[in-house]
Amino acid sequence: WLFVDRSRNASRLWCDMAVCGNRQKANRYYRRRTAAREVPNA
């Protein structure tokens, strides 16, 4: 595995899906929802 921290302040941490998978999935869902909201209705 390769873990690359691309955050501005290098604050991301490796997290096993068995330990905090729900947090990761919720974060991914939130980003998808906000990205979909930013698309203008042309």
Low-pLDDT residue spans: none
Major sheet: size, sense and barrel closure? none
> How much of the polypeptide forms β-strand, as a percent range?
under 5%
Output the structural class: mainly alpha
Give the fraction of residues assigned to helices. 40-55%
Work out the radius of gyration.
14 Å
Mean pLDDT: 78
- How widely separated are the two ends? 41 Å
Q: What overall geometry do the principal axes of the alpha carbons give? A: extended
Order of helices and strands: H
- By DSSP (H or I, 4+ residues per run), the number of helices equals 1
* Number of E strands: 0
Structure description:
- Helices cover 52% and strands 0% of the residues.
- It is built from one helix and no strands.
- It has 42 residues and is mainly α.
- The protein has a domain at 15-41.
Task: Set out the fold topology.
Layout (H helix, E strand, L loop, with lengths): L16 H22 L4
List keywords for this structure.
extended, mainly alpha, 1 helix, 42 residues, 52% helix
Short account of what is shown:
The chain has one helix and no strands. The protein is mostly helical and 42 residues long.
